[in-house]
């Protein structure tokens, strides 16, 4: 009772949490290492769920893909060095430039930023791990397996060849037979699971795991940037996932979403792709900007200028970047007014970008910049990114865009933005955090040489490419026999391209030398003020022997903090219960809320991702009838996954965090990390549904070939079944709500869980009857295909909710419901499934009435 | 209301207004609103301008409703509201000049 009072008191009083008494640091270290370390030997390689291990693994794998993408770039430059290059044939060239773009975007840039976030965020925020360690591991394995599928296709000569944006109808079955396009659609979607997983856990970690006292308005800017990035990933990736699913369904089953002759429209692909594709630029840029905002003030021996302005700029970028996508489609014949909306938004987005650049320049102005290696790369970033931003403003102007559209000018612009805005800051970040990662200091000299070689190589390659584009050279051509005026410029780009490659190889060599031969680094070699340096180097798997509290956060003195935390003077010291524990705090003001117990090492993520991979491979092989078997395995493993969570949640005891502060292990309703993660995931799911509704509206309003012939679904039988579907989902929602509200009652809830199961079952039955007896052939017209997809979406969610109801029933049987979060999770998903189901029914009935 | 939604409401209003006007643009072109005159302008432009003005008014209300002050916790949501207002004015300003379909 005393403990409870103490815990509640934290929410009301100012955050003055007393320190724990000092203990022997080595003893604490050993105690924590026993609990948090990876398994030994090869088993540890497959069962690790720790964020330090997986963050590094993400980044190392991304660097390997970067090297492969770079080799492909060199092949492209070798081919283009002369007018009639015979180095590659057209088919191989198409595969190589498609894979170069796809690898750099999906297998290098995004995983690299995920890895950086996963590695750094817990350290910067003062916690021990990400919110969902198994999800981190699942994301990594999905990324690795998806990437390997793409690489295997390249090695086998069946790699995608339709450009990294896979425009239809070129990528449709008629013009792209074989599995090349399927490899992209399925492989990239597989990889995107890791992006969504990372986005969910980054969001939850930043909002719920900051050190007590670290208010949102005080947290390190890197966390703000990553929060913006994660939010953009949750909203940006679903349109691409939807587009990939639709195109794959069209290719595999002939449902005509993009086929003009049957009511589809290739422009739907472009819209969905660029709804992802443009925010993607900012998804890549924001973490890089976060690294700059972290490194720059420390190297200038000052604080960042305009913290609030930068946060506001991030806010503006996150939103405005979703209003630009049509500027990639200026040449497709969109009415002037619509063009001007997107042109204006494209110009407006330069303002928050400029706010950040001026804040960084101002920070340098007020401080004393030290020209260390990371600073060199930041200066390289300024030069390159500002030039790329300015050509971006040029391309936002419609008449210029029409002139430069699809030329090498755009290729030059995007490389200035992406290499300037991401690669240079990442090289700065690597130089900055290598002592943190390896515990070793850099060997001076080689890194500086590498910087100058990279900078000269980059600008030599891409500056002249602007001119090549302005002279009219289109993108993605392999020979240009009739245009001798492009040859010298191309040859120049090729020569400097190899120079840049040499520079990057030197940089890699520098990293290897530092990791293997560098001298021991001091604890905080850069004298940085952030918590990522308040630990021994290299970082232990648990980061902090005791967690930083309000005092340590306010001090911003890692050297002093590190010693206090290592001696257990922070919060929640050691691992006395033999569990992986961390503090969960409230979202805005970071007040201690409860103690979360995280799962330990397990191979479950590997097995689950392998099952998803089996589904992808079966689809690629055209074994569509067998593919659902893999999904059954996925469902069974997901069940087991959540059984693990239920076991962890059992207990509900209070845990001593500090003198006079004890917190519950079992949070109140809606306050668990799992609940927060569920909300984040549903944001992504809701965006996918919204994109699908956009697709329905777009084809109805814009596509040729409408209105379609009258459909059978508009019959009375169809209407009755739609009502039955809505009623079934409504009943299930009622059951879920009652179960959650009466959760402490335990066993008496079985009837409600059965009712929920029955409601979802009835909805599925209604959908099956609609599909089997009422709905028209989905290959006949896009209207019928869209209805099929809506039915599939609603059915999938009803099935998931049925499984969740069954899971709750199982927990009731085991007597675990009173302490379990499962009823809350089911209620959340059931509400979503019911709401989207009702919207889908309304859309079908509404569009039928309009027709 | 928690802090984060308050910080997001301004840009969120812009997103809603921008999507609404763009949606009305596509719908109006498809339904032939640009040929129907109402109150001295086309029905199409009237619908879009109404949505724009509605969004602007909502943004103004939010700017006035949110408290200001030197404390970043209070200041940031208000800056967010100004961002929403500024973006709504600038990105939809072409409504006054360009031909609609």
From TrEMBL, chain A:
TM ranges: 54-76, 96-120, 140-159, 179-200, 221-247, 281-300, 307-326, 338-363, 375-402, 414-434, 446-471, 491-513, 614-639, 645-665, 677-703, 715-737, 749-770, 790-809, 829-850
Signal peptide boundaries:
none
Listed A to Z, the keywords are:
Copper, Electron transport, Heme, Iron, Membrane, Metal-binding, Respiratory chain, Transmembrane, Transmembrane helix, Transport
Which cellular components does GO assign to this protein?
A: membrane
One Pfam entry for this protein is: COX1
Record-linked InterPro entries: Cyt_c_oxase-like_su1_dom, Cyt_c_oxase-like_su1_sf, Cyt_C_Oxase_1, Cyt_c_oxidase_su1_bac
**Entry keyword Transport:** yes
What superkingdom heads the lineage? Bacteria
Instruction: List the pathway annotation.
Output: Energy metabolism; oxidative phosphorylation
UniProt domain Cytochrome oxidase subunit I profile: residue ranges: 36-551
Q: Which reaction does it catalyse?
A: 4 Fe(II)-[cytochrome c] + O2 + 8 H(+)(in) = 4 Fe(III)-[cytochrome c] + 2 H2O + 4 H(+)(out)
The UniProt family comment states: Belongs to the heme-copper respiratory oxidase family.
This protein is called what? cytochrome-c oxidase
TrEMBL record, chain B:
List membrane-spanning regions: 12-34, 46-67, 79-98
Descriptive protein name: Uncharacterized protein
Instruction: Cite the entry's keywords alphabetically.
Output: Membrane, Transmembrane, Transmembrane helix
Q: Which domain of life is it from?
A: Bacteria
